[in-house]
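haha ok so turns out i had the wrong file open the whole time. this is the CORRECT one, sorry everyone. sequence first:
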Amino acid sequence: MPAQKRNPRVLIVTPEVTYLPQGMGNIANYLSAKAGGLADVSAALISKLFTLGADVHVAMPDYRGIFHKNIGPLWDLYRKELETYQKYLPEERLHLAEDRVFYYVHHVYSDFTQENIKIALAFQREVINNILPRVRPDLIHCNDWMTGLIPGYSRMVGVPALFTIHNIHTVKATLAEIEDRGIDAAEFWQHLYYDYMAVNYEETRETNPVDFLVSGVFGAHFVNTVSPTFLREIVSGRHDFVSHALRQELTNKDHSQCAYGILNAPDASYEPASDPELVQNYTPEDWTAGKRANKLYLQKHIGLIENPDAPIFFWPSRLDPLQKGCQLLADILYHMVAKYWQQHLQVVFVASGVFQRHFLSIVNFHGIEDRVAVCSFSEPLSRLSYAAADFLLMPSSFEPCGLPQMIGPKYGTLPVAHDTGGIHDTVQHLDLARNRGKGFLFQVFDSAGLMWAVDEAMDFYRRPAEVRAPQVRRIMQEAAEAFNHEVTAGHYIELYEKMLQRPLITEAYETA
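then structure:
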């Protein structure tokens, strides 16, 4: 009888996560540290692997301040439970990297670069020096720049590493700084990426900074971005803000067939049938009544004209002109409202950011407070707006993945969006004749393009109910099937399997 194939051990290294499976100990559900979509993706992947019986382990910083904030006075009790769990259970799966530098932080990332470097180095030191030798994984999955040195170490010890790029932020530090924080980078310095050509260790150590994000790409065996199109856009040189180094290293991985795009997915709680923030839950079968009830409540709550037939355009993303394209909407906002005045068009912002004051000025100048509401971000109000609105506005100049354009269709809210990055991978222009598509896409990034897409949306809105209703129902059903963590986790598991099939050094920790 052939020997049974061993269950590979996977270590997921992440600076943030929203939840962990119950089987990792009762405290696992309280160790929530989130700054963005990375936390949700990490949680979903870990949960899926655990459910499938995989030998999955998790390494994350011990953010005591954040964890204490999450569970308040129960923290001491749960802390003792975790310590007991780690001490006595032979199959420890949750590995908290401990260092005082992140014990008392209250956010995953700091506004100060040097503080972020300290946190990242402390985290990676503990993973490299303590967690990896203890876990002895068959595969390491690192996420974003805070883990960017670990793939270089994995090269040295011969363990396959996947590096996932969730955003293109990076930090830099010299080998001297890295070693001063307790990481023996001299062992694997040749597997890191530097600002300048690294001729030898001695000349490199003091003056040639290591780029954390690019090092992650350079050192990893496989890499992935969080959408296939964003990967192609970087490799093709479409985005000027992407550094030449990152583009070149991703291109090298792509040419070696070691680069992939795997879409994120919205949190599972974004479900109109069960979302607790809605005044009336609904499904694809009764969406018209559900949207009507939520629309009337939202209009009354934020001071808009109460009219269930008024089309609502919802802005769900932060008001950041560098990425989100809010300046395009500012150019056409009054024209958009005026053009469809008789149709009672309304715009709802539930978003914070530097550009918010510009929209407030436009609204106040034209006296259209009962047609346009500018609200700071609130999770409950945002969820209600997804349910109340008919369309969502997403004119991003670039989008590594994006989640609103996936959440909206689940609620029957159709995206009006720029055809870029993750939007391209998730939204197809509505084609009534072929009974397909989920929204309205414009190709040229300017205000005229956005206005054209708004006109397309309004053309659809004016169609008879017997035309619109089945399309929205179809879109809701397709979005629920396509945009979920089961699908995302499945793609990562397929990639893990591909990586584990490639021959590497088998005795990875022989000298550890």
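The chain has a mean pLDDT of 88.
again sry for the mixup
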